Amino acid sequence: MNISEDTSGEWSVKKKEGITHLYKGTTLVMSDSLNEKQRLKEFEERVHGDVLISGLGLGLAISMALNKDEVKSIVVNEISSDVLKLVAPFYCNEARLFFNKANAYTWEPLDKQRFDIIWHDISHSDKVITLNEISRLYKRYSRFLKEGGWQASWEAAVLGIEIKETS
Predict the structure, then answer these.
(1) 31 pLDDT band (50/70/90 cuts)?
(2) In sequence order, which residues have a C-beta less than 8 Å from that of residue 101 and are 6 or more positions away?
(3) Which of 13, 60, 65, 140 has the least C-beta neighbours within 10 A?
(4) Range 37-159 classified under CATH 3.40.50.150
(5) Domain boundaries, the chain
(6) DSSP helix/strand/coil, 56
(7) Torsion region of 155: left, alpha or beta (phi above 0 gives left; psi -120 to 50 gives alpha)
(8) What is the pTM of this model?
(9) Continuous segment of H or E residues that includes residue 12
């Protein structure tokens, strides 16, 4: 990834052996490793139209979406100002991309805005969110999906499960 090593608050981006890592303190939150990319494979295959991403991380999902001409818009909600400071500037010239400093559990779209794809990739401090929390997000966000839309999460991809909450 083309993101520079830097630190903002508790968050830092570091590079080692060609892999970019995002840390909160000393806890690895994500990387752009092959394993991480594999967990986004279904997202990469399905992404099109209007996209909502909960959680910025290193912007791996954003990069995949921007590589598709059929993606019209991407809205990214990130709760951490520090993560936004570290990562968002590397995508500032992308006209299809909009960043919000927002909490995934309380954010509301503008004027009945709906999405073809919704991808959740969030964590709480130093722990991955639970399946109950992911299910809660799926239920909350299902009303923001267009007819036939799809939503999924990094956590479900890691566990190899599909949570059924679609439009």
Answers:
(1) very high
(2) 78, 79, 81, 84
(3) 140
(4) yes
(5) 37-159
(6) coil
(7) alpha
(8) 0.90
(9) strand 11-16
